[in-house]
Hints:
Layout: H1 2-9, H2 14-27, H3 60-72, H4 77-89, H5 94-103, H6 109-121, H7 129-139, H8 145-156, H9 162-173, H10 178-189, H11 197-207, H12 213-225, H13 230-241, H14 249-258
Helix pairs in contact: 1-2, 2-3, 3-4, 3-5, 5-6, 6-7, 7-8, 7-9, 7-10, 9-10, 10-11, 11-12, 11-13, 12-13, 13-14
Amino acid sequence: xxxxxxxxxxxxxxxxxxxxxxxxxxxxxxxxxxxxxxxxxxxxxxxxxxxxxxxxxxxxxxxxxxxxxxxxxxxxxxxxxxxxxxxxxxxxxxxxxxxxxxxxxxxxxxxxxxxxxxxxxxxxxxxxxxxxxxxxxxxxxxxxxxxxxxxxxxxxxxxxxxxxxxxxxxxxxxxxxxxxxxxxxxxxxxxxxxxxxxxxxxxxxxxxxxxxxxxxxxxxxxxxxxxxxxxxxxxxxxxxxxxxxxxxxxxxxxxxxxxxx
Length: 261
């Protein structure tokens, strides 16, 4: 039965995976079993009470279960409660850290973002995937951008973490994820840090066609009017005109005409 549940939990079909997750949560078939129960309602000394969780090395079932909880938390109250309780009870251990680090590689950026937030709250911020997932999945999401910005501000205030955040922002600015490029550019512009040429690239690549064009135009106008940013903005527009961002060529060409090019 356990092998069948694990196989179902790893299914690419979300309904099957969630069904297996419910079985695990409701029957206690893993270290994460009973996570949906409110720890305040369980005895302090009980097996499923306030005792900290420690995920062991190589716990495929736990990693698959966490992945499913993250995916279903916005739709299923059981998953949402389990996710919240995990964040409260996860023990700061190598096993817990490694299980969450594996989730940083998820193609679903919202899953990677949540895993990064958990690692941040547990004090595990030395992995480069943590700031990058916060940038890529947080700044790139309109609903999460404010929260992500606060986390990045806190990380940048630590001299030991600031270089990793800078690298994560640069990866987003020059990457292929348009919402993340836009989010990283806006984050830096809002902090008057426009000297990075990637900011102009993020505004053009991530803004035109992906966000309200009025805001993209406004921000691009600020960059063009700034002597130190003008050339980078023109270079970004030129890259847009000659093919880097095919869907935005019309808007880019229109802007270049207004600039007298």
